[in-house]
What does this fold into?
Amino acid sequence: MKQIGQRPKKIVIDLNLLNTLNTEGCPACGGKFSLGEMTVPAFGKWNGLKLVHEKDTVFNNKTNSYIDKNMLGEVKS
Ligand SMILES: [Zn+2]
It folds into this structure.
C-alpha cells in the first residue's frame, strides 16, 4: 500500500527569511517578500525547489508538489 506524502510545508516569512530571500526576490514573480507572507517550496524554471509566494504556485496532486504557475502555460499573450 502506497502512502501519500504530506503536502510540502508552507513557510511564513520571518525576518530571517526576509533578509535572505529579498536579496534576489521571488523567483516566480520577481517581487519582494513581506513579513508574514505565505510561501511554499516550488518547482519552476529554476533548478530544484525554491521558496516562492504561495499565490504564484499551483499544487500538483500527482507529484505532491507546488509548481510555478508560469510553468503551466496558463499565461499566454
Ligand atoms: Zn512571487
